[in-house]
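Workshop exercise sheet. Pairs work together: one partner reads the sequence aloud, the other fills in the structure field after running the prediction. Swap roles for the next sheet.
Pair: D.N. / O.F.
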Amino acid sequence: MSTSSNDMGRRAFLQASVATGVLAAGAAQAKAADTTKTITGTGSMPTRVFGKTGLELPVLAYGSAPLMTREDEYYGIASGNYEARVKMVRTAYEKGLRYFDTARIYGDSEQIFAEAIHDVRDDVFIASKVLVGSAGDVRKSVEDSLRTLKMDRIDSMQLHGPVIERQGYDGCMPFVEELVKLQEEGLFTYLGLTGHSRFEEMYKLIDSDGFDTLLVEFGYFHKGYNTRHSNRSLANRERCVARASELNMGILAMKVMGASIFGHNAGKLVSEFDKAQVKKLPASAIRWVLNDPRIHLLNIGVSVPEDLDANIATVSGDTTLNNEDRLLLASFAEQAYMQEAVTDLPVV
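Structure field:
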């Protein structure tokens, strides 16, 4: 394989990092310290090996953004009280989920994780994210996450997508340098990326081969958090997933439900659609993503316990993507794309 300009840039970055004490060997040692970790799943969920981590994990991961205290505008259903949300996370663990994703900007989700699964820390994979305005704030963000989670080390710290969207590849490198230092110090094992858009910049970071995991918007509906994807964006998203797969990164799909399109908002978004068919949308959306073998885990936000049970049942059953799924997703999406709530979104 030919050496890309990004490969050269990454090597130059690492060489510069050595001069400032950020040693690639240190990061490797941090990972080596965790190679003996094993995670034991329970229940009937299938598992997939999570890329270069070598960990075999249940395909359903716990997305914590819906844990935020909120009304029902975005997710279509209000969140429960604090005790109910703690119980829901613990129930997810007891029913076999092992990957738990959070972020400092997700309200009190890190605190909820600390209370719900702190005592089973060694049997779960914990990932959080860094979203700060400058590289100088990275250390504080990571240390605050660990303090809130009541852990001295987590499995993965991810550069949050909005940083990539605002800073681009070049602007992200000082953030990455700080993260590599903290990885060397043993505050986390794996370094990851996340994002809903700016896939061309995400691709450059992936291609640097300096990251272990990728959490990427990857659903049937062409929508990020609050944008619609152009054909160019979709092409760049495909490049990201293809390159990450080549590099054996652990790949998680997020926004599986189309960023609220196929979930609790579906019946309100397209009110004339058959109600019985609307209820089938989440399962079809899950099977659509699972049909791609490059995706290791589905990071799906959980709003209420019923969602958790339904998603477990879907991934534990026949996950073959059939023509009924394709027809349902296409028919609903055709009408959803014409709704004002979607047409008003900026196209990126």
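Discussion prompt: The mean pLDDT is 89. What would you look at next?
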